[in-house]
């Protein structure tokens, strides 16, 4: 189980994330939803231990992620930041480089993972020739290489076409169902992910302002997007 208590990281300019509380059990998909600049990436970076929190903490099965960076490496797959940042590597080289971080990742695992994300046929091409969507696929492969128990994804579909997004969503949904992997995903395009998330966390102007399970949301709203718009309208002080 992954738990986050009162996680707060405020940059010198005053922006960042404050008071994030989140719990993800095996097989759950938590979405951080918020407008541009709301603090979603900061929240993910702080959850993964990349940023030192000012207050609060993230815990993996009760152990502090800040105190135990090995927990992030062993149990989490991260897709945060620029995908596949080595232009002169081939996709295959990139995954081989990643595999060195772990013991027991062999060529068969690399090939399985390339197959999973639909990149087998492109693995010998240099990353500089990849489209944005292809870079995202290879980055997803690197995050999945060690078969993490928790996947953290920051806007993973932003450069993908509709077909690619559907395909990736189906792959991730399959992994969640078959392996019990949990996911924390950020997006400002709610409709892209609303059919496979289990919980929504609304982030607005650097604050965690609301949380609901999708089951709860469906009792009162036609869609997660409607729930999201209701929350953000309230924050703006408008009529929801
Ligand atoms: N290193 C930094 N130093 C100072 N301010 C920062 C830093 N990184 C981000 N910010 C600011 O913090 C706020 C939150 O940024 P963040 O990237 O976390 O938001 P986001 O919700 O992920 O946005 P987007 O949807 O556009 O990716 C923004 O106003 C951003 O300009």
TrEMBL record:
Pfam family, one: ABC_tran
Residues covered by the ABC transporter domain: 2-230
InterPro entries assigned to the protein according to its UniProt record, in alphabetical order: AAA+_ATPase (IPR003593), ABC_transporter-like_ATP-bd (IPR003439), ABC_Transporter_VariousFunc (IPR051782), P-loop_NTPase (IPR027417)
Keywords carried by this UniProt record: ATP-binding, Nucleotide-binding, Transport
Gene Ontology molecular function terms on file: ATP binding; ATP hydrolysis activity
PANTHER family named among the record's database cross-references: ABC TRANSPORTER ATP-BINDING PROTEIN ALBC-RELATED
Name this polypeptide is given: ABC transporter
Species annotation: Paenibacillus albidus
């Amino acid at each position: 189980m992954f738990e986050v208590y009162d996680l707060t990281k405020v940059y010198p300019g005053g922006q960042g994330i404050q008071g994030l509380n989140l719990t993800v059990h095996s097989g759950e998909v938590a979405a951080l939803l918020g407008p541009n600049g709301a603090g979603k990436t900061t929240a993910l970076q702080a959850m993964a231990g990349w940023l030192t929190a000012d207050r609060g903490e993230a815990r993996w099965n009760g152990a502090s992620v800040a105190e135990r960076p090995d927990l992030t490496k062993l149990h989490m797959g991260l897709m945060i930041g620029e995908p596949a940042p080595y232009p002169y590597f081939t996709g295959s080289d990139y995954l081989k480089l990643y595999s060195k971080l772990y013991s027991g990742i062999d060529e068969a695992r690399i090939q399985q993972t390339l197959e999973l994300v639909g990149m087998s046929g492109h693995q010998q091409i240099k990353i500089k020739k990849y489209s944005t969507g292809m870079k995202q696929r290879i980055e997803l492969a690197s995050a999945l290489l060690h078969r993490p128990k928790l996947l953290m994804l920051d806007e993973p579909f932003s450069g993908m076409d509709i077909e690619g997004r559907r395909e990736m969503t189906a792959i991730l949904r399959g992994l969640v169902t078959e392996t019990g992997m949990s996911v924390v995903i950020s997006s400002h395009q709610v409709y892209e992910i609303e059919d496979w998330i289990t919980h929504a966390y609304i982030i607005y102007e650097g604050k965690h302002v609301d949380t609901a399970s999708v089951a709860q949301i469906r009792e009162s709203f036609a869609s997660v997007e409607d729930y999201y718009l209701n929350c953000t309208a309230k924050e703006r002080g408008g009529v929801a």
